[in-house]
Amino acid sequence: MFIRHEVLEALKQGHPVVALESTIISHGMPYPQNVKTALMLEHIILKTGVVPATIGIIDGEIIVGMNPDQIEEFGKRKDIRKVSRRDLPVVVAQKEWGATTVAATMIIAEKAGIEVFVTGGIGGVHRNAGATFDISADLEEFAMTNVTVISSGAKAILDLALTLEYLETKGVTVLSYQSDEFASFYSRGSGLRIEDRIESADEAAAIIKNKRDLNLRGGILISNPVPQSEEMPKAEIDRAISQALVEAEEKGIKGKEVTPFLLKEIANITKGKSLETNIQLIKNNALLGAEVAIALATLNAKGK
Question: Which residues are catalytic?
Answer without folding.
Answer: 21, 155
